[in-house]
Amino acid sequence: MMKKNLLMFAIFAVCLLGFTISADAQRRRRATRTTKPKPAAQTPAPTADLKAGAEKVSIQIKNSTKFLYLLGSVANGIEQIDKDVRAGKATRDIQAKNEKFKRDVMQSLRNLRAGLVALEIDFRTKPALQKYLVNIQGISDMSGQAEDLANGGQFVESGKVLILVVEKLSDTLAALP
Question: Helix 155-175 crosses helix 45-86 at what angle (to 10 degrees)?
Answer without folding.
Answer: 170
